[in-house]
Design brief:
Layout lengths: L2 H4 L2 H17 L13 H15 L11 H4 L1 H5 L4 H17 L4 H12 L2 H5 L2
Helix pairs in contact: 2-3, 2-6, 6-7
């Protein structure tokens, strides 16, 4: 079974993203990166991206990670900001009761894109 299925599929990923963005958008350290953006559109794209990354259906048609985060980098996204996002992501998974072994799998996959997100 894929990690996508282990996590509960698209529905569970969508719920996790709703909680994650609720945290991010109320955190003044990172919320400015989303000013003027359609967060619902971002969540829909991210849901498809994560489904693909976690071994589920590949419906993602968006930009690559480097291009998708260009605006945030221009606004000053750095290691500290990245770590804040990842902390909110981990906290969300923990709140949803995802087992630690699965959280580690998710975080390992998520961290593979760090260099692209930060432009390294």
């Amino acid at each position: 079974m894929s990690l996508h299925a282990d996590l509960g599929g698209d529905e569970a990923i969508g719920m996790a993203l709703d909680r994650f963005y609720a945290k991010v958008l109320t955190d003044s350290r990172v919320s400015p990166y989303f000013d003027g953006l359609d967060v619902d559109r971002i969540k829909a794209r991210q849901k498809d991206f994560l489904a693909m990354a976690f071994g589920g259906p590949n419906r993602y048609t968006g930009r690559n990670l480097h291009a998708a985060h260009e605006r945030a980098r221009q606004q000053g996204l750095d290691e500290e900001g990245y770590d804040i996002f990842m902390s909110h992501f981990r906290d969300t998974l923990e709140e949803l009761g995802v087992p630690e072994t699965k959280i580690e799998e998710v975080m390992t996959i998520a961290h593979t894109g760090k260099d692209d997100v930060l432009g390294h």
